[in-house]
Specification:
By secondary structure, this protein is of the alpha/beta class. Helices cover 35% and strands 28% of the residues.
Length: 252
């Protein structure tokens, strides 16, 4: 499990994440929700050690993330940031191969190639493996980046707004793939989502943030209620049961 205790980060005297403590269970999808500026992406970056924390502690399976090397952490936990644009021209196969860097240091072994092939096949990217990323649609490109993370073969996968700039069809495809990855590989996925209906329909647990603090955390059933959502978003949101999931109406 991932345990964060009193995590704090500030920029220019303003606390972006303020004394956040939470526990993320293994083998589940946990979504971080909340308005812009709530501190969700910053929290994710501190958990992955991409940015240093000003105060607090993060433990992954009981081990302090600051105690080991970056290479050791990269074999345990992977992260895909929202800004995943690259300045170099890569094929899908080359990109997915980057996921093996913590093991191969750039010199892929037979086992590394097997992991790359498995990830490409699992994300249904075989027809595109030798195509360049700039030749793909937004949904195909996002699947390629997720394949890279899957090839890294970590227990914990952190995704920062993986549905950003995707249409409804591709967003559903990505969320179904993530659900399948948890089921087939036993991964633990933590992601930042802006669409509360995607969070509701595909998450096991939800962490709601506002102004750098955790408002509430719990199961989807506990979290997707008018009371909790009003406290997070400062607006009235109607919640209905549709097909076994809670759907939020906030357009009227």
């Amino acid at each position: 499990m991932i345990e964060a205790a009193a995590l704090t980060k500030q920029y220019g005297g303003k606390k972006v994440v303020d004394q956040v403590s939470l526990t993320i269970a293994k083998g589940k999808i946990t979504s971080l929700i909340g308005p812009n500026g709530a501190g969700k992406s910053t929290l994710l970056s501190m958990i992955s050690r991409l940015i240093p924390m000003d105060a607090g502690q993060v433990r992954v399976d009981g081990a302090d993330i600051t105690a080991g090397s970056s290479k050791e952490l990269a074999r345990k936990l992977s992260i895909l940031k929202q800004s995943n644009h690259l300045n170099v021209r890569l094929t899908v196969e080359e990109l997915v191969g980057f996921g093996r860097f913590p093991y191969s240091q750039g010199k892929l072994t037979k086992e590394d190639h097997l992991k790359v092939d498995e990830a490409i096949r699992y994300l249904e990217l075989e027809p595109f493996r030798r195509m360049y990323l700039d030749q793909l649609s937004g949904g195909q490109r996002q699947r390629a980046f997720i394949a890279m993370v899957l090839a890294q073969d970590t227990e914990y996968v952190l995704l920062d707004e993986p549905l950003n700039n995707l249409d409804m069809k591709h967003s559903v495809q990505i969320m179904k793939v993530l659900k399948q990855i948890v089921r087939d590989f036993g991964k633990t996925i933590v992601l930042v989502l802006h669409d509360i209906n995607f969070a509701s329909c595909y998450s096991d647990d939800i962490v709601a943030m506002k102004d750098g603090k955790v408002v509430k955390a719990g199961t989807t059933q506990d979290m997707i209620t008018p009371e909790v959502l009003a406290a997070v978003y400062d607006m009235d949101i109607q919640v209905e049961e549709v097909g076994g999931s809670r759907v939020c109406y906030y357009y009227t």
